[in-house]
From TrEMBL, chain A:
Gene from which the chain derives: divIB
Record function comment: Cell division protein that may be involved in stabilizing or promoting the assembly of the division complex.
Membrane topology: Single-pass type II membrane protein
Compartments where located: Cell membrane; Membrane
A Gene Ontology cellular-component term: cell division site
Species, as recorded: Piscibacillus halophilus
Stated name of the protein: Cell division protein DivIB
PROSITE patterns: POTRA
Record-linked InterPro entries: Cell_div_FtsQ/DivIB_C, DivIB, FtsQ_DivIB, POTRA, POTRA_FtsQ_type
Source species taxonomy: Bacteria, Bacillati, Bacillota, Bacilli, Bacillales
Pfam families registered for this protein in UniProt: FtsQ_DivIB_C, POTRA_1
From TrEMBL, chain B:
Key words, A-Z: Membrane, Transmembrane, Transmembrane helix
Organism of provenance: Piscibacillus halophilus
Acidic residues: compositionally biased ranges: 724-746
Name of the featured protein: serine-type D-Ala-D-Ala carboxypeptidase
UniProt record similarity statement: Belongs to the transpeptidase family.
Length: 261, 746
């Protein structure tokens, strides 16, 4: 048996001592960092830094940005982290004119609300104010505007609800590019045609049409109107067939509407 | 002695005389016996004729049909009237069988057959005086319809009889007259009877097929006309004529005839030629000339030539199709290269070649533009500098413009190619100098429709027997050459399409509403008989050749109008474009070809591209190029907002309001609609007051003044009819009343 190397405990104590010291140090630092971090978090959460810095609203045209922010109930003293996205979406969607909402956090303190509005298919005049009509047929009684916006035609003279409903339905179904061309629509029922309407269009024509075939005829309108040159002034009839009657004349000019084929 | 002598001499003389007489008689008999002829009349035949009676069983002439089976030339039963005058005819009858009361007969017949009463009386009186058995009434009494015959029969006139006959008739009247032709009644070979033979056009060309062969019944009778017992009786049934089917389509031909007649009445041109062809097969679907004639009456036939195939003339610029094709096929054509148009000459010793606008030209233009403008200088340079005249001559041969098309019609003629001197060569390339027939040009142009393959034109589709059981002839489309490659054909089509669609193009008036097309106009000078070319107003041959639809041409049409009476020379193409467009549009619709283009130029909404943060001028230019009506607010150099917004789809007849980053200014709102005003107010965010309806007439802020969200705009609107009312109150009121009446009737 070889002689065992024996180190006395006395010799080893300083080493152990040092080791123990090291360990304690490390633990201390860990705890300290942790505590510091927690403090930082508390400080952040308590400071305005964690609050919503700004709310951006996108894609709205008819509903005011402030109104949407108000609806979202997001405020600047609210914590950025306490936003319940679903709840916000729900709240905003309650607005009659908004069809779809998405809420996104951006950066560390900004919120972007992107909305899709029901497009307005028209404005009806009641007393001296204008009420928007949405593509879903709803008349917004609460929203009364002194001056309509340029996003939809103004409808006049609809003393009855039924023709108005039929017209707005068709306006909603029509390609928005076509609706853009209509400025004003007047309901002017005749004995022979209760559906008769008169329109002014943004390309400068006065047009007589009929509600019952409004959509189908209006689809062709851009092409029909193109055949009327700008030097011709008169009324464009698209109620039955398609023809143009210059003012002060009884001559009719047949126009082609052959896209129907 | 003398007595004896005398007696002997006498008897010898007598014997001799009688012997001679007998000899002569025997000789004559022997001669007749051997030769069977007396005074060159064959006695056998004579006897046969005397004994045999035969009656003709007439063969029915074949009919001419169009492609769809409509009759173009048919037969109808007519009646020839005659009057029996001889009193003997009534001898054994209880009622009168001859004309008794000449006055009454004449007065009742006159209105029905359209002959002067006195004339009828003259004919009848004269016949009676001469003791004629019967008389006829010439063209008035011949060819009466069944209705006329029945009307006369109802009059119960004595001595008036009818003989049934068939007559050729052409139900459409003046209709492809030079093609179909007509028949004539001619005495047959043995001059015993008139028969109907083709005298012109298809009638003449296929006379053997159409005519058929008469049959007969032959029997033997005695002198008194009684049938001999046990006699032979021959019955030879007639062979009816064959039916000829043409490639002509009655509908398309009618479209063509009608429009040509309209042009004839309105512009009174000297001559017109038009052909419609199926360029895929070479079938001629319609062919017509003016002046024309009605084959039923054949009155006043001014022109005996089927000009479409028989009259070569200087075609003018339509010839440039072949020059262009040749240059592209040879790979020497560069459509984007430019040259100076106007006037040009080969060198100082040669005369100038001038463009058709009095040599003014259009400045420096590309060769593609040269095609659109139909620049003579451009094509002269293509020929002289790029293609070289010798090469072009090869292409004239390849397109077979130097030989007849061999269309199955008679009377085709070939023009004269003048190609000796440089000037001739250049002239040929631009369509002057050398002459070609319309059908030659059409044949050459079929190559464009068939990927370079050239079709032989034909007009007879088939010939069958009268029951349609047996087809004796059937035409097949025939490729007769491949002068250019498919690729070249497509390139030529593309360039020729721009002749019609481009703003510079000479073919603008020929644009079809519902179909894409391509083609080439031509305005050819007419050689003046006294030398040089005619220079008067409208004294040109206006022509056009075109095909549609462009990608897969179903119809090709050539039309040429010579010397229409127009106010200005450049109005001449009104005639050709009217004929071309009317016939092509109607025919393509009739053939149920799918329209590949909408007549309204299909106005489609355009999606607005990025507008914001871009340079104002660039955006405005872009939008205006797309056809938008653009209003710019302010003078900033960047666009910040707009209505309609970017990315929206908008029709080009919509106004687009652009907001720039500069100070905003008020636009002139005259004629704006309310909605545009709303948009403006929305963009600027100002206040608005408005009154009236329709279009803006007044604005409180004058155009050009600056505006901001603090401005307040007031506008007044009125409909245009209101303003017209003010101008012309009386007539407007009338109109409203009338308008109401009309509505009341509905």
């Amino acid at each position: 048996m070889a002689e065992k190397k024996v180190v006395s405990i006395e010799d080893r104590i300083p080493q152990l001592k040092q080791l123990r010291k090291k360990k304690a140090n490390r633990r201390f630092i860990t705890y300290l960092t942790l505590i510091l971090l927690l403090i930082l978090v508390i400080v952040y959460l308590q400071s305005p830094l964690s609050h919503i810095y700004s709310v951006n609203v996108e894609n709205n045209r008819v509903v005011d940005t402030e109104e949407i922010i108000e609806l979202s109930e997001l405020s600047r003293d609210q914590s950025f982290w306490s936003i319940d996205q679903e709840a916000v979406v729900e709240k905003i969607e309650n607005h009659q004119e908004i069809s779809d909402v998405t809420v996104n956090r951006s950066w560390y303190n900004q919120v972007t609300i992107s909305v899709e509005e029901y497009s307005r298919v028209g404005y009806v005049k009641s007393s001296n104010l204008f009420k928007p009509i949405l593509e879903n047929g709803k008349v917004l009684d609460d929203t009364e505007l002194k001056v309509p916006k340029g996003d939809a035609p103004v409808l006049y003279g609809f003393s009855e609800q039924e023709p108005l409903t039929r017209l707005t339905q068709q306006l909603a179904e029509l390609d928005s590019a076509v609706v853009q061309l209509i400025s004003e629509i007047y309901w002017e029922p005749e004995d022979t045609n209760k559906d008769q309407i008169r329109m002014f269009t943004t390309d400068g024509h006065e047009v007589i049409a009929s509600i019952h075939n409004f959509k189908d005829k209006m689809k062709l309108y851009p092409s029909i109107a193109q055949q009327v040159t700008s030097d011709m002034e008169g009324i464009l009839y698209i109620d039955v067939g398609a023809y143009f009657q210059p003012y002060n004349s009884n001559d009719e000019v047949e126009l082609e509407a052959s896209e129907e084929e | 002695m003398t007595n004896l002598n005398y007696k002997n001499v006498m008897s010898f003389l007598i014997i001799s005389i009688f012997s001679l007489i007998f000899l002569f008689l025997i000789g004559r008999f022997a001669y007749i016996q051997i030769t069977g002829e007396v005074q060159s009349v064959d006695l056998l035949d004579y006897a046969e004729k005397f004994r045999n009676t035969s009656s003709v069983l007439e063969a029915e002439r074949g009919e001419i049909y169009d492609q769809t089976g409509m009759v173009l030339a048919g037969n109808k039963t007519v009646y020839n009237m005659y009057a029996v005058l001889s009193e003997e005819y009534s001898q054994n009858s209880s009622v009168d069988l001859h004309v008794k009361d000449i006055q009454k007969t004449a007065s009742s017949l006159a209105p029905i057959i359209g002959m002067e009463e006195q004339q009828i009386i003259d004919i009848l009186e004269e016949g009676k005086e001469e003791g004629s058995f019967q008389v006829e009434f010439g063209r008035f009494g011949n060819g009466l319809s069944k209705e006329q015959k029945e009307e006369i029969e109802e009059l119960d006139l004595t001595g008036i009889y009818f003989e049934q006959d068939t007559e050729r008739y052409y139900p459409n009247g003046a209709f492809a007259s030079h093609v179909i032709g007509f028949t004539e009644d001619r005495l047959n070979e043995d001059k015993t009877k008139y028969e109907t033979v083709g005298a012109y056009g298809i009638e003449q060309m296929y006379d053997e097929h159409l005519g058929g062969k008469d049959g007969f019944i032959r029997s033997q009778r005695d002198k008194y006309g009684f049938k001999l017992l046990n006699a032979d009786e021959h019955v030879q049934s007639p062979e009816h004529g064959h039916d000829v089917f043409l490639t002509i389509d009655q509908k398309i031909q009618t479209f063509l005839e009608d429009t040509m007649t309209t042009v004839q009445e309105e512009y009174n041109p000297k001559r017109m030629v038009a052909i419609v062809m199926n360029p895929k097969t070479g079938e001629v679907l319609a062919m017509s000339n003016r002046p024309s004639f009605d084959p039923n009456t054949r009155d006043e036939i001014e022109n005996w030539y089927n000009d479409a195939i028989s009259t070569p003339f200087e075609p003018g610029s339509t010839m440039k199709i072949f020059t262009l094709s040749a240059a592209i096929e040879e790979g020497v054509y560069n459509g984007d290269a430019t040259f100076e148009s106007g006037r040009w000459r080969i060198n100082e010793n040669r005369s100038y070649i001038s463009d058709h606008n009095n040599g003014e030209g259009w400045g420096e233009i590309t060769y593609n533009q040269a095609v659109q403008h139909s620049s003579n200088v451009g094509f002269a340079k293509i020929l002289w500098e790029q293609l070289k005249p010798e090469k072009y001559l090869e292409y004239i041969s390849a397109f077979q413009l130097d030989q007849p098309t061999e269309i199955d019609l008679e009377g085709e003629r070939v023009g004269q190619i003048t190609y000796t001197y440089p000037r001739d060569q250049i002239n040929t390339a631009i369509g002057q100098g050398s002459t070609f027939t319309p059908i030659q040009i059409m044949k050459g142009a079929t190559a464009l429709a068939n990927g370079g393959k050239m079709m032989k034109p034909y007009i007879t589709s088939r010939i069958s027997d009268i029951n349609g059981n047996k087809t004796l002839y059937k035409a097949e489309p025939e490729v007769v050459g491949e002068p250019i490659s498919e690729d070249t054909a497509n390139q030529v089509k593309d360039i020729l399409e721009t002749v019609i669609t481009s703003e510079d193009g000479t073919g603008g008036p020929f644009k079809l509403d519902n179909f894409t097309s391509f083609g080439k106009t031509g305005t050819a000078q007419i050689p003046d008989p006294s030398g040089g070319y005619k220079t008067g107003v409208g004294e040109y041959v206006y022509s056009f050749i075109g095909m549609a639809p462009k990608d897969d041409p179903k119809l090709m049409m050539y039309v040429a109008v010579e010397e229409p009476e127009v106010e200005y020379s450049y109005y001449g193409s009104q005639t050709t474009s009217y004929i071309y467009k009317t016939v092509m549009e109607n025919s393509l619709h009739y053939l149920e070809i799918e329209p590949d283009q909408s007549n309204e130029d299909t106005i489609e909404p355009i999606k607005l591209n990025q507008l914001y943060d871009r340079n104002t001028d660039t955006v405005v230019n872009e939008l205006e190029e797309q056809g938008f009506n653009v209003t710019v607010l302010g003078n900033g150099d960047q666009i910040v907002d707009s209505l309609p917004k970017e990315n929206e789809s908008v029709y080009p007849n919509k106004r687009i309001i652009l907001e720039t980053n500069g100070e905003l200014t008020m636009p002139d709102l005259t004629n704006w609609t309310l909605r545009d005003v709303f948009s403006l107010v929305e963009l600027v965010d100002m206040e608005l007051d408005f009154m009236g309806e329709g279009f803006v007439t007044k604005q409180n802020i004058s155009a050009g003044s600056s505006i901001s969200d603090e401005s307040k705009l007031v506008v007044e609107l009125s409909s245009k009819s209101d303003s017209n009312e003010e101008d012309d109150e009386e007539s407007e009121n009338e109109e409203i009343e009338e308008g109401e009446e009309v509505e009341g009737e509905q």
